[in-house]
Amino acid sequence: MKQFIRDYLTFNKRERNGLFVLFSIITLLIIYLNISDKFIEPKKVDFSKFEKEIEIFNTSAQLINDSVTQANENKNRYRKEVPEQPVVVENSESVENTQPEYFNFDPNNLTVDEWQRLGLTDKQIQTIKNYEAKGGKFRHKEDVKKMYCISEKLYMSLEPYIQIPIEKKVFPKYEAAKSEPKNSSSARIVVELNTADSAQLTMVKGIGAFYAKTIIKYRNSLGGFVAKVQLMEMWKFDFDKFEEIEKFIRVDASKVKKLNINTCTAEELKHPYFNWNIANAIFSYRNKHGKYKNLEEIKKTDLVDDETYRKIVPYLILE
């Protein structure tokens, strides 16, 4: 034990000198820290500027609070003097106005606000405005019913108030009236859209090779036309073009190719009026609940709204 203490507590001359220097430095530091305050005058900090800024801030905050309080008092006083108008919140994407305001109206160029007063949703109004932007015009009451966005129920409620002024046609005076040759077949021919080929379609005045090809392509994707107005769903086919050829075409809806929703797969439900989500929802609902008993059951999928149903139902069958 003594040997152990001797080994760890015995210092040579060099080590003793080092310890002496270390203790000397520690002693000097202790003395300096104790007497330094007596020789060094502490620096004074001026807080007056900071205190002024705090005072200004408090004053500004008080002014703001007073202004807000006064504004609230004025608002409450105004509410007592003038009753608040009821605010109608509606889901413009899916729900029609529950309290429509009916009035006599001309559907041509009717404003958005007036359509909303009649109970139409933003989506329905946008469809009508797109129709008008393409040159579409309502010449008869029944033209409103032809819009896919207008349901039968909505049309029946609007029909008594539709007032379309009768247009007086002014025929230009020509120096010499030119009649087409008697053998001109293009002036008299009426083409059935669901069976005509490109050659027959181009015989109609106003339908060239481009439109003939476009009509056949769209007809094949639809499975056939059920109404002539479907032509305006095609690219670059506006109302002016439709009006030009409308009396030279007809549609036989019995030629339409229909889809059996009780036997077809989701892939076979491919159609311009269906996206993949709707087709898959119809297919999944059938797998879960069994075959459809009537066509209206497809609306139970929640993805088929009234507008989509009206457009697609002519192309569906049950077997």
Which key features would you list for this structure?
two-stranded parallel sheet, elongated, 319 residues, mainly alpha, 12 helices
Would you kindly provide a written description of the structure presented here, covering whatever features stand out?
The chain has 319 residues and is an all-alpha fold. The protein folds into 5 domains: 2-38; 46-82; 91-167, no CATH class; 187-255, DNA polymerase, domain 1; 259-317. It contains 12 helices and 4 strands. The strands form 2 sheets. The protein has a two-stranded parallel ribbon. It has a two-stranded parallel sheet with strand order 3-4. The longest helix has 34 residues, at 48-81. Mean pLDDT is 79; it is low at 85-97 and 169-187.
- Count of extended strands: 4
Strand content: under 5%
Strand order of the largest sheet: 1-2
The 3D shape can be described as elongated
| Unreliable stretches covering 5 or more consecutive residues | 85-97, 169-187
Radius of gyration: 43 Å
Q: Helix proportion of residues, in percent?
A: 40-55%
The SSE string, one letter per element, is HHHHHHHEHHHEEHHE
Tally of alpha and pi helices: 12
Q: What oligomeric state is this?
A: single chain
What's the mean pLDDT score? 79
End-to-end separation in angstroms reads 108 Å
Whole-number tally of structural domains: 5
Class inferred from helices and paired strands: mainly alpha
Major sheet characteristics: 2 strands, parallel
